[in-house]
Design a protein that fits this description.
By secondary structure, this protein is mainly β. Helices cover 5% and strands 25% of the residues. It has a 28-stranded parallel sheet. The protein has a seven-stranded parallel sheet with strand order 42-44-50-52-54-56-57, with no helix packed on it. A five-stranded parallel sheet has the order 3-5-7-9-11, with no helix packed on it.
Length: 819
């Protein structure tokens, strides 16, 4: 439902005596009007998940009769706590999943009637005030996923009425679980979430005293050892989450004692052995997640589902299980909505899928399912299916090829790394993520694709698609975050319809047959971080106007027909965040663009603060739980980049903020290497080979302390190799072959690892590793030699760089789908 006419303000402006207003999950998409502060009779205000925005009026907290305030799960709603008076009647305060900031005031202790307080997943900071201990009536307290600091043990020791406590995701580190032993004094506690607080060691024994626990979440810590036997005596538990730890051993068969268990999450641990048959005795089980362990054995899936009739979520992915899917037992699985069976050795579609009318998520990736997708499956769950992942199988197509797929609510369709043939399937209009890379699709992009107005990720890479790119791809950029069409046979010009206000962050059109010029409408893509147009037939001058894009980090134009002199930038802030630029294999002339070097500030940072990766785009993010949401399933779509080096492409499976590179090889640059290159102290790759550069190697290049690869080969450089280069301690690859260099080769440190091939074609060089001694060697005319790097040298370079650096280098082909 949507609230449009009248709007929220018009709706309530005359309701001066309003006492209760509940509009949960109604799309309001506006700020909260200040007129609410006049509703003195209001006792309950609930606007949960309404897409509220703007600043929350602080005086609403102070309405004289307000007992319940709920605005949780409105991410764009900001605000701060006011000061609270002793007369304040608030009993329930729910702000979880908003963007409230600031510190909690000490006057929070004046809310003597407060029984429920939920501020999880906000942006509160500072210490938690000790006055919270004055809230003698509070039974439920959720403080997780904020930026609090300090010790909780003394703070919460006197909350005798506490029934629910969530304290996950803190900035401070709980290195010893004994520091939380004070919790055991609250024997009436029914809800406990202590996830993501860096707990180490075995599951703490003080939990034995909490016999009334109904909900326990200790996920995302560093717990080790087996599940203790005494935990199986907590027979009031309805939810048990121990995911993402380092727990070992077997899943205990005594789990049958937890007869009230409805949710069991043991994923991403190191459990081994078979799934105990006693799990089938948990007749109330609705949610079971065992993915990412070392479980083995045979599972009769039909028997599993026949016994657990109330299952809504079943995730067995990424173990060593073998599933039996053919049996006479027909389970009643009308509740099942989420199935994760990735890497389960399946070779066909499970036939129990026939009976699922409420299926929302199906993950059958990384199996051995071959042949065509059956017709019955295409007509299945038409009105319910949201996310479908069939990637990394042996599928060849559909039993019949409809004009478009029929799932009316589908958001994610992942068909990557199969053997699909024929034309590109058109997904439903509801699709947000469409991934079909690494198949054998042919033909053109059908015009119906232009109707996908909600598309965010569009990946057709590594197919045999051809024809011209439809102009509508530019129009899709309102919603599109990533466009990846690399390694196809597309021809013609790049669409020129990229609109202002676009959200595009990633464009990869490399390895096609595209022609013409780069469209100037790309300047509208103000969010663009990555642009790869390499290996095409584009003929243009250097697109200096791209320097106005404030977020651009990677620009790859190699192996095209770019030409001419790179003129000086018009401003001192061109390409402010650029970290990787590859112009190799073109026809650029003139001097190296030294004024650009002065403006590339991102390459001047010697050490980046914290390792991060570009474009970890969420494909599926499904949550469960009531007050504190528990992640059921997450998938990341990770993007890659290719660094071209003399015919060998180094492919980075993930692009870290540590990767910086200038690749200008195989052009017609001339004159000297500018001194300004020495300012790029964060540079890791510098490739200037196969040009017409002359003059000396600047001694100031010794300041490039982060450099791992330096290739100056096949130029006309003269003079000595500066001894200052020996100061570059991370240098793993060095090549100055086929120049006019003379004098002694620097000795020691990294130079002790370089072989003769690094110096060939420089008759005037002497000292190790060459056999010629400086005192007896007389320079002679430069001899002809092969200008191409040997295959052995290239492989050695890759090995050395991978060994010496912290970067991920190697043949990681394509994009990575991480679970």
């Amino acid at each position: 439902m949507e609230l449009q006419k009248p709007g929220l303000e018009n709706l309530i402006e005359k309701l001066t005596n309003l006492k209760m207003l509940h509009l949960n999950q109604v799309n309001i998409s506006s700020s909260i009007p200040h007129i609410f502060m006049n509703l003195s009779s209001l006792t309950e205000l609930s606007l949960e998940e309404c897409e509220l925005q703007g600043e929350f009026p602080a005086k609403i907290f102070q309405l004289p009769n307000l007992q319940m305030l709920n605005v949780q799960h409105n991410l764009d709603l900001i605000g701060n706590f006011p000061e609270f008076h002793e007369s304040n009647p608030l009993q329930e305060l729910r702000l979880g999943g908003t963007s409230f900031t600031g510190e909690i005031p000490n006057s929070i202790g004046n809310l003597r009637s407060l029984s429920h307080m939920d501020i999880h997943n906000c942006k509160f900071t500072g210490t938690i005030p000790s006055s919270l201990g004055n809230l003698t009536k509070i039974t439920s307290l959720y403080l997780s996923q904020n930026k609090f600091s300090g010790d909780l043990s003394t703070l919460l020791g006197n909350l005798s009425s506490l029934e629910k406590l969530g304290i996950s995701s803190y900035d401070f580190s709980m290195q010893n679980s004994l520091s939380l032993s004070w919790i055991s004094r609250h024997s009436r506690l029914t809800y406990l979430s202590i996830s993501e607080i860096n707990l180490v060691g075995e599951i703490p024994s003080w939990l034995m005293n909490l016999t009334q626990l109904q909900f326990l979440n200790m996920g995302n810590n560093q717990l080790t050892g087996p599940i203790p036997y005494w935990l199986m005596n907590h027979n009031q538990l309805s939810s048990l989450f121990l995911q993402s730890n380092q727990l070992t051993g077997h899943i205990p068969s005594q789990i049958r004692n937890l007869t009230k268990l409805m949710q069991l999450g043991l994923s991403s641990n190191q459990f081994k052995g078979s799934i105990p048959a006693s799990i089938l005795e948990l007749k109330n089980l609705e949610y079971l997640d065992l993915q990412g362990n070392n479980l083995s054995g045979v599972v009769d899936l039909h028997l599993f589902l026949y016994e657990l009739k109330f299952l809504k979520v079943l995730i067995l992915s990424s173990n060593s299980l073998s599933l039996i899917t053919k049996t006479n037992i027909q389970p009643e699985v009308q509740h099942l909505g989420f199935i994760g069976l990735a890497s389960c050795n399946l070779n066909e579609f499970p036939n129990f899928l026939h009976n699922l009318e409420k299926l929302e998520v199906l993950d059958l990736s990384f199996n051995k399912i071959a042949g065509q997708i059956p017709k019955w499956f295409l007509n299945h769950s038409v009105d319910s299916l949201l996310h479908l992942n069939l990637s990394y199988n042996l599928l060849t197509g559909f039993q019949y090829h409809p004009d478009f797929l029929l799932w009316t609510r589908l958001r994610t369709l992942d068909l990557r790394s199969n053997k699909f043939r024929g034309p590109l399937p058109v997904p439903p209009l509801s699709t947000h993520f469409y991934l079909v890379s690494h198949n054998n699709l042919i033909g053109e992009i059908p015009p119906l694709i232009c109707n996908l107005s909600q598309l965010e990720i569009f990946d057709l890479s590594y197919n045999n698609l051809s024809g011209r790119l439809p102009q509508c791809l530019g129009n899709l950029s309102y919603t599109l975050l990533m466009l990846n069409l690399q390694n196809n046979k597309f021809c013609g010009s790049i669409p020129s319809t990229f609109v202002s206000g676009t959200n595009l962050m990633w464009i990869d059109l490399s390895h096609n047959e595209l022609q013409g010029r780069i469209p100037r409408s790309l300047a509208n893509c103000r969010m663009l971080e990555f642009l790869d147009l390499g290996n095409n037939q584009i003929s243009d001058v250097f697109p200096s106007w791209l320097g106005t894009l404030p977020e651009l980090q990677v620009l790859i134009l190699h192996t095209n027909g770019f030409w001419g002199v790179i003129k000086d930038p018009k401003t001192n802030s061109a390409f402010p965040k650029l970290r990787v630029i590859d112009l190799s294999g073109n026809r650029f002339t003139g001097n190296l663009p030294w004024k650009y070097f002065q403006s590339w500030n991102a390459m001047k940072v010697e050490t980046a603060s914290g390792l991060t990766y570009m474009q970890e785009l969420m494909v599926v993010d499904i949550l469960s739980g009531v007050d504190e949401r528990v992640y059921l399933f997450q998938s990341l779509y990770l993007c890659s980049v290719e660094i071209n080096t003399k015919g060998i492409e180094l492919i980075y499976g993930k692009i870290s903020n540590l990767l910086t590179a200038i690749i200008f090889s195989n052009n017609r640059f001339e004159e000297e290497i500018p001194e300004s290159v020495a300012d790029l102290r964060g540079l890791h790759f510098l490739r200037l080979s196969n040009n017409s550069l002359s003059g000396p190697i600047p001694p100031s290049m010794g300041k490039l302390v982060a450099l791992e690869s330096l290739d100056l080969s096949n130029n006309r450089l003269s003079g000595q190799i500066p001894p200052e280069l020996a100061q570059i301690t991370f240098l793993a690859f060095f090549n100055v072959s086929n120049n006019h260099l003379t004098g002694p080769i620097p000795q020691g440190k990294q130079f002790a690892t370089f072989e003769n091939d690094s110096y060939n074609g420089n008759p005037g060089l002497c000292r190790k590793p060459l056999s010629k001694q400086c005192e007896s060697f007389q320079p002679s005319q430069k001899q002809d030699s092969d200008s191409h790097q040997s295959l052995f040298e290239i492989y050695l370079e890759i090995i050395l760089i991978g060994y010496a650096s912290g970067l991920i280098v190697g043949a990681v082909l394509g994009n990575t789908f991480a679970k």
